[in-house]
# Entry
Amino acid sequence: MNSYSHNFAVCIGRQLGSGGRNVALAISRKMGIAFYDKEIINQAAKDSGLDPEYFEKVDEKPTVPILGGFAGMHIPFFSGGYLDTESYLGNNNLFKIQSRTIEMLADKGPGVFVGRCADYILRDRPRVLSVFITATLEDRIERLSKLLSVTPEEAEARIKECDRKRAEYYNYFTFKKWGDSASYDLCMSTSLFGEEETADRIVSIVQTKILEMDTAR
# Structure
């Protein structure tokens, strides 16, 4: 259990192979707060009554419509409650469902959110820190090669493809630029600090930010 009296969110954007997910997990562990990554997809599916595979297919990928199979299905987060027979459910509508889920999770208590434009979705809340985690391409290739047991060439190809898709997804829904320092409160490199120290520095910043806000009340 955490001892924080106010809700806050740490939103982590990351390059594939940067160790950003591990950093997010470390922040969650060190602060004793909730961790949300794939959990967002699972909860969004549960909230909407949709199969998780629909969210998986478009997870942080460029906008593509998913046709068929939804006529008359109850979608709680849409006005009217039902999609008519002419409707289709694609990234735009799934993003709306997922956004509402992220807001509901943020209402429950402090948490760390990985990707999925959480920084944009929660942008109007006062206690939100948006962080982008990066690393050198060499470190990313090495980390991903070991993690997936693939060749460096395969790892580099996956990195480039994943970065492209995440950028297109983020840029489309947030009207900002993925990975650009101007889009975030903080950018940090695990190549410089390592995963644990990167997490420690972010925790320190979060705690300072919360303390300053609470003192100003």
